[in-house]
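anyone seen this seq b4? input:
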Amino acid sequence: MLFLAISLPITVDTVSAATNTSTTTKITVSQLTTAASSVNSFYKTNKRLPNYVTISGKQLTMPQYLYMITTETSQLNSGSTAAITVKNVNVAPKPTESLKKGNIQKTEYVSVAKNLKKFMDTNGRVPNFQSTSRGNIKFETMVDTYSRILIFYKTNKRLPNYVEVAPWTGKSYTTTEGSTGTGTTPSTPSTPTTDVVTVTPTQLNEAVASVKTYVESRNKMPTTVTVAGKTIQISQFLQLLAQRIIDLNSGKNVNLKTKTINMATAPSENIKSGNIQKTEFISLASKIAVLSSGSRVPNYWSTTLGSMRYESTTYLFLKAITFYNTNKRLPNYIYTPRWTGTTTTGMTSSIVRPVYIISDKISNNATDNARINAVIAELKKLGITAYNYGVGANNIAILSNTNVPINALIVQFFGGACAATLNEMGTSYYKSLKDTKKVFTVFTDGAKKITGLAWLERAHDDNFSPASFTGLANPDKYLTNNGYKYYEGYNSSKLNELVQILYKEATS
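predicted toks r here
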């Protein structure tokens, strides 16, 4: 049995499972399993646990969260889906671990969950370790393990038969202030601070990575961001990004300080997707960096692509800094799409990519459209929005269509394996157009199998690649090495299997 996990990177120090501002102390199964995905994602991205997780408007420390997920595991095993009351739980004073990697069976992890709950109920804190058949397991590993158990439950509507455990290799859990934590919850966790916040380059880089992932996976811009343990407005974060770009351009690596920058009152945009050159985005950054405290973000900035609103500008700066962190220099230009997303009231955890399906002319229009529509119908049953983009649709044109969201999952059906088409997917030109979208390829059962194929010759009907192109070596490795996934041998009998795969692609 495979243990499934959904990847959902969120923020720097706080992950959020809902935007509801209710003060309820009851957490439902649905809310908790969604939070589990957020925590798991945060760990995978940052190699540590978040300081807090927000569920239904209530900010929980990781000890509180552990109490909730172990209680939930025990309840689900007994058939109960009752909401659970939030309980104050403190951290373990001296956590230790001596664990061997391996599987723990369901009967054992349920028993461990019950023992953990009992200890926390009695002592008001997490134990330093919990004994298992694989050795002593400490707090951070407990959180990771039971989060994955609930993720499995969310996907499969049952508890897994076993779960893999492994020694904790991430950083130790701390609160936003860097101490060992007290298990208490701030009284106003989602209210942006009015204090001046000092932000180190490392702290800003962590925020950049998390916010960029959030925007690309959800097609939304948050209104607040947690950085250096403090919640600030996205307008303040935008100015931090601008300051950082100016510093990087001048060779500085210094701490930054937030200013009180208000939001645009009526943001608007009218740009064409295209490249913003280095001199221009640095000039734009300089205009934002010098905004004074008490001022507001303009409704738009004039650029060579047209009038640009703050979301596009924020995303532009996120990409510039990300490029610098990888290449140790600012990019010469940045591809900038028109903003098609939304602005939300917080960083929610639900990743659901819209799916756009295109197809070669494989059989005939009726059969090819029926194939697409059958997949769409099944995806919609799983809550995924999907569209038939067309038979014979241009698999390049869809990438540059500004009506297709930046976080879309594009599924392309091919009736044959065209070496030139696959080769094109690995080019910088194609990847620039694809940008933050995901592309998944489905080969029907009439196509030549590429898995394990040493050489894919040029297609007989290839009339667009240069005459010098003769084929593609190891096409399967070429796709995977360039970050693409594919499915081979599709026919109608494999509909459910394909839909489950696409569901996972759309929610990760």
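Residues 29-46 form the longest helix (18 residues). The two ends are 20 Å apart (CA to CA). kinda curious what u guys think
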